[in-house]
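Changelog note: in this version the structure field was regenerated for every chain. One regenerated record is shown below for reference.
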Amino acid sequence: MKIDAPTGLDVTGIRLARADGNTAVLTWSTANESQLLGFNIVRDDGRGRRQTVSPEIIAAELAGTAQGTTYRYADRGLPAGTYTYTLEVIRLTGRVARQPAGQIKLP
């Protein structure tokens, strides 16, 4: 697997929001999924702990097509703190592009 710098070509928008006090919700859209396999969500807690929080690859719903769609992932049960999220975009070739998703503070 090779990791690339963000390209912004596949993902058209990423939004991070708080829901229900201890849940971070990541929403993103794609413009074209012709070269996409899927996505991973990575969380950094600011104390050196970085982990993939999606239990498995989130499959691209329209993989292999020139169409796009919208995705939503809820990271639930988080303790109070500040978290930084990254969306990993996995291409059919196995290459991974990291897209910064933002930072959120949970009470």
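Spot check on this record: The two ends are 36 Å apart (CA to CA). The beta strands are 3-4, 11-19, 23-30, 36-44, 50-52, 58-59, 70-75, 81-91, 96-106.
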